[in-house]
Predict the 3D structure of the following.
Amino acid sequence: MRSLLEHDDGTEAAAVRYRGLPRLRPGRDEDGRPLRWRDRAVVLVVLLALVGGGASTALAQPTPPPPPNPSDDELQRSRSSVAQRAGEVGRLTAQLAELDSRTDDLQAALAAQRETAEAALVVLQTAQDAAAAAARRAAAARIETQAASSAIDEARARLDEFVTATYQQGLDVGPLGLLTDSTSPEDLVARAEFNDLIARSQLAARDGLERARVAKANADSAARAALDEARAREAEAQTAKAAADAAFAAAAAAAREQAAQLAAVAAERAEVQHRLDAAESADAGLRQQRARFDEWQRRLAQEQTARERAERNAAAARLGGRDGAGPAVGGSAAVRRVIDRAMSQIGVQYVWGGGNGRGPSRGIPDGLGSPLDRVGFDCSGLMLYAFNGAGVSLPRVSRNQFNAGRKVPISDLRPGDMVFFQNPGAPIHHVALYIGNGKMIEAPYTGASVRVVPLRTRGLLPQATRIF
């Protein structure tokens, strides 16, 4: 059975609900009207008539005793008892509100731990990508070194071939050889041209060898630099992995600790709820009021569900079935598209680490034994999907999304602005999208779904982030 007052991000709603209960006071009926002596007299006369009629029709049977006739003092004590139980209902309801507030604090602390772990995961991925790029550059440098070595070998082979051929053929390519070996002026000219060709070939072979040696030296230097960079990036990746592992271990430990605390809070809440139910069931008037209250809550939930369904369907209709990233737009059209994308996901379950620019996705194991195939959004994943529809690519975690746009004061909040929450002295742990009329849409926490709620002020940062 749900409590008469249910904490809903503040105690004001609880107080309003409690004020809906009738306060039964001594000397008054459950509608609050004074009991009159003539009313009591009419009741007594009717009872005596019923008793007398039974005796006249069955004279052989003994007359049953009359029902108890409570005195005015007994009625007064009964009314006082009802009033006392009503006061207990109020005290127990305040305890329930306090327990719900503690539950919200535990959820916020856990969200902060998980955001830290997810941020470490982003750093790890960046470091791994840098290490892989450096490794590719080192591999390319090794290939260039090998090519330079091959070029040196080829140049040296060409020079060796030239020297060997000159030696084996016994050519005298000097001026004296040209004069003594030529047989005619034409032969002298031909030998001079041949001598020039040989000189140029020898010079080209030597230049080629020198260039190959320089290229190899440069390639060796580049390869050493690339290898050093690859080793540095690999070390950074290892450091980032250690940080991510530690962050995830801390998040898992925090999840287990928070689960134990939540279990204790839930047990305490169940005990208070049991006492509240006992106080309610002690008086028929309160039970009737509870039935009317439950019916009101049921109608309210149905209306809320219908409203959310209508808002979700209207947003999906305005999107026209476009699930992928939309073209980059600005102004009111961009804001409308971002809000519609978020509203079209109302009711999708919260999954830590879930969601991207294309829609809900499988998240990160939360350390609480949740199924690994759960698909949904976390708070920053919902923002990724919403803004991707307007051609904007946001960073992954909420604390990074805070720096993704222009800062505006909360007093200047407009639809389409992102609002952020943090605990005192802790990093940002939650982000939501303001949609106007004092409301925001969010993916709140495990066990809940994407929803539209009034803009909370508890933990709200004084600045919002505006993209458009």
